[in-house]
Structure prediction request, 70 residues.
Amino acid sequence: MTNEQTSGGLIPLAEDKPLLRPDEVAEVLGCSVANVYRLIRRGALPKSPLGGNKSTRILTADLRRLVGLG
Prediction:
């Protein structure tokens, strides 16, 4: 399996990069960081807090599922 292209950018493989920052997710989805946080608040995109809210990360596998690749 290879990286997949979305309208915004490439989604890395979970094996290559297991965690993404909200700004990286926004780039992949072609949206703002605020929209990424909206997805998290609505429960559409699970987050993995690492040491508090300032270190929020999104599992690449969860992002791939959100866009229909996983």
The CA atoms of residues 48 and 63 lie 12 Å apart.
